[in-house]
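Q: Please design a sequence for this.
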């Protein structure tokens, strides 16, 4: 008899004026998440405020079979963006029909918004006192409309436990992959990303997408420096060494790096080291001191400080959560590469 638990149920709320691309993100990402036996880990369903056609911002409508009662069955509810939110967007107030629909959501259900779908969660009071984000072009308006929300306009997504929000459009992919990673570990999320042909984790935040003057054409990219760093995360890294890879002064390199990545070189390196530590914690049994050296943090104390700051849990707790039985047997003495495979460990001096 199969004792596998039922797949986690995700219900997507389709509102008039929705963006078809965003509506499809949860189906695409969660639908590609499988367990080691190839069984789906999520069931994804769509509902509207009533069964029937739902308008989009394109030249076609979609037909939704389910009404809002379906929200009562959800483990996770996703609200994509809509261009026809009316009083929600203008006054921060739910319509009676939308309020009645959201009343079906059970307490404890995980809530997710994509782009300006966060207006719906905020108008319903779900974001009061919480950190949240939305499309950078709407962030200032969002904050004025919902002063009780702690808006972070610079990130691709926020995770406040049972309430998660994403920035504009494609950031919904980043958020859904993050949820899969949080629920089932990096290996499952990486495979879902591979099947969707998107990176499992994007660097930087929204700052890199905000319109700004085009850099001078004679300024070279910092891509080579970043590739150089990724091969040497376990080594001490100096800003002068990074700038030298691009034949730039430190000042020019720092400015150019922030323009391209949305963060400073130091912040980017720390983020990459945290990501390497996460993979080592998930996919190897290396002791904490070795994980710290391979990730470039030097000591277990430094590893603990940075992982706690970035992920909100200690390295030990993170490993206990994400090093599942399905990970057992992977190369325990190797450093996983960016796609989850194992490559020889570099120098741990």
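A: Design:
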């Amino acid at each position: 008899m199969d004792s596998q638990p039922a797949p986690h149920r995700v219900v997507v709320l389709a509102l008039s004026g929705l963006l078809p691309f965003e509506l499809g993100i949860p189906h695409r990402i969660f639908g590609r998440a499988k367990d080691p036996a190839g069984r789906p880990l999520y069931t994804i369903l769509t509902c509207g405020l009533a069964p029937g056609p739902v308008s989009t911002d394109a030249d076609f409508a979609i037909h939704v079979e389910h009404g809002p009662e379906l929200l009562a069955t959800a483990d996770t509810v996703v609200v994509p963006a809509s261009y026809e939110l009316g009083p929600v967007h203008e006054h921060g107030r739910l319509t009676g029909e939308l309020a009645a629909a959201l009343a079906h959501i059970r307490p404890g259900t995980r809530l997710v918004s994509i782009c300006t779908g966060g207006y719906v969660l905020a108008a319903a009071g779900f974001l009061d006192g919480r950190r949240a984000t939305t499309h950078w072009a709407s962030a200032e308006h969002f904050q004025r409309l919902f002063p009780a929300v702690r808006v972070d306009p610079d990130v691709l997504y926020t995770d406040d436990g049972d309430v998660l929000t994403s920035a504009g459009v494609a950031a919904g992919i980043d958020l859904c992959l993050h949820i899969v990673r949080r629920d089932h570990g990096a290996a499952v999320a990486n495979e879902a990303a591979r099947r969707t042909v998107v990176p499992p984790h994007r660097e930087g935040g929204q700052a890199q997408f905000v319109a700004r003057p085009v850099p001078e054409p004679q300024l070279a990219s910092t891509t080579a420096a970043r590739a150089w760093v990724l091969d040497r995360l376990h080594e001490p890294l100096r800003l002068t060494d990074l700038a030298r890879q691009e034949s730039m002064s430190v000042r020019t390199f720092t400015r150019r790096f922030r323009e391209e990545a949305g963060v400073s070189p130091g912040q980017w390196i720390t983020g990459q080291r945290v990501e390497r530590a996460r993979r080592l914690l998930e996919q190897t049994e290396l002791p904490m001191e070795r994980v710290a050296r391979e990730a470039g943090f030097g000591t277990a104390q430094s590893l603990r400080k940075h992982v706690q700051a970035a992920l909100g849990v200690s390295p030990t707790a993170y490993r206990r959560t994400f090093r599942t039985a399905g990970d057992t047997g992977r190369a325990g003495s190797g450093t996983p590469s960016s796609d989850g495979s194992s490559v020889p460990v570099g120098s741990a001096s």
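Q: Thanks. Anything notable?
A: The longest helix spans residues 265-283. The CA atoms of residues 111 and 163 lie 5 Å apart.
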